[in-house]
Amino acid sequence: MSTIPESTICLTAAQAMIRYLAAQLNEDGDALFAGCFAIFGHGNVAGIGEALHGARDTFKTFRGQNEQTMAHAAIAYAKQLKRKRMMAVTTSIGPGALNMVTAAGLAHVNRLPVLLIPGDVFANRGPDPVLQQIEDFGDGTVSANDCFRPVSRYFDRIMRPEHLLTALPRALRVLTDPAECGPVTLAFCQDVQAEAFDYPMSFLAPRTWRVRRPEPDATELATVATLIAAAKAPVIVAGGGVHFSDCADGLREFAHRFGIPVVETQAGKSALAWDDEWNFGPVGVTGASCANVLCEAADLVLGVGTRFQDFTTGSWALFKNPARRLVSINVNAYDAMKHGAEPLCADAKVALARLTQALAPRSVSRAAPSQLKTDWFAAVDPLTAAPADTNALATDQQVIGAVQRASHQGTVIMCAAGTMPGELHKLWKAPRPGAYHMEYGFSCMGYEIAGALGIAMAQPERDVMCMLGDGSYMMANSELATAAMLKVRFTVVITDNRGFGCINRLQMATGGAEFNNLYAHANIQEMPRIDFAAHAAAMGATSVKAGSIAELEAALVRRASVEGPYVIVIDTDPYPSTPHGGHWWDVAVPETSERDAVREASVRYRKALEDQRSD
Prior knowledge:
The chain has 24 helices and 22 strands. By secondary structure, the chain is of the alpha/beta class. The protein has 3 domains: 202 residues, Rossmann fold; 155 residues, 3-Layer(aba) Sandwich (Rossmann fold); 187 residues, Thiamin diphosphate (ThDP)-binding fold, Pyr/PP domains (Rossmann fold, 3-Layer(aba) Sandwich), CATH 3.40.50. The strands form 5 sheets. It has a 6-stranded parallel sheet with strand order 4-3-5-6-8-7, sandwiched between helices. A 6-stranded parallel sheet has the order 13-12-11-14-15-16, with helices on both faces. α2 links the parallel β3 and β4. α3 packs across α18. The radius of gyration is 25 Å and the shape is globular.
């Protein structure tokens, strides 16, 4: 047994953490962490701030404007790079920390890695109650950061310098594990950040984290292969896991070889090119008719990397075939077992390869039902065409058409909430994997501009196009200033419909009166006169107001010559939506009301519930 002591180095806990993060590598040999977004304040400026300053040449620090949105940018960065690289985010204690809770929820729902490092109260409790401290009258261990517990995949509170020796490896295991991936919160007590400790040099040595690709269980594989072989009308539901496991090519080969139509969730869209003969487009509530018709008749629904969210399943009323079986390929057993699915718990890329081997003797003679796609595009393409009446208020569909015509192979379209997610899911023609970036697991208003920043930082060579409404812009726009300061290039198209147009239509669809969504129906004294183009320009963006679709198209042409963020504003009609496709969505309607419209909607709702399946 060796008696030679291990070499150590004296560092503050904050310095040790930053050195550790900077030494982590991914399997491509790149730094796993691209840096840290930071807003300094009480609780992190002295300890973590000094540590980041000391590492500024090797571990970049990016100054955000809002704790929630800078975390959104970090999350979008990781999503666009398929979880192969990520960022850390640090904030002060109290309100600074709590501003990040929404972003943690977004990352948790979408299974995306981000390391959140909020400052925390004093571990020694000497100055309690410290500024911004939340006191629990019955539990002295509680701080504001406990709010992160339900929205973190791993949570730890660093109350001694040596806690990092166990907390950081645990955090990295979760951040890099495909099955458990999600936000990690390390609540870092502010006095501990500044404490010195002799850290082992081995702890700070470079380490490579490889993506684990679990093989399927032999029995599960045989069962699923048998179900696929026996199916007469199978359909594949492609989810976000297709992208994260890098199996877009494998999915395409599998679908073509065995003649199985593919439909795409919001997270899975662009898994196959829009014009691939076996890609039948978006599924579910915001789905295409061609996709939903196939799903209604399917006797086998094969999910690949999907959570089977209610928008995907039409609140579990879409799959109408009484004989249908549900199979779920997912690296996470929790998702693989949902709704009584036959699980194939494995990496999606590996699972499809093993299924191909198991099904190799099977011969397939059916052709893709191409007429379904032909009919779909014949119905919706006119909606995105340039309008004949150039004086009419533009529709969202026409705006999408203009952006589509200006796009190319390198374009990434992105969005998160409001009208655009549903319209883009139906109408956008994604030419390649990774060309469509939609945060619709949490559908978080305010993700859009920050997300565009993160995407453009991850892939600066891409033509990033962010589409959002005036409501989302008003929610969170401050990272435009960050983008301008960093000279990060992306384009923002703001559709101004003077309120929350999407939820106004849902209100009407459930029998409700138009109320409190559009400004015209809100309790205000006068209509707002917000100049979005001037506002964006005031934060350093190049901006323009387009008065028509033709002016929008002309403005889009100029984006290549703009340095930094470019904002185009266009007024739109809040009422039209794509009338084709779609599916019922379970939004509970009041059982009684004084209004006839609500009572009528309630009858329709109760009738629709009859199609909902619990199995």
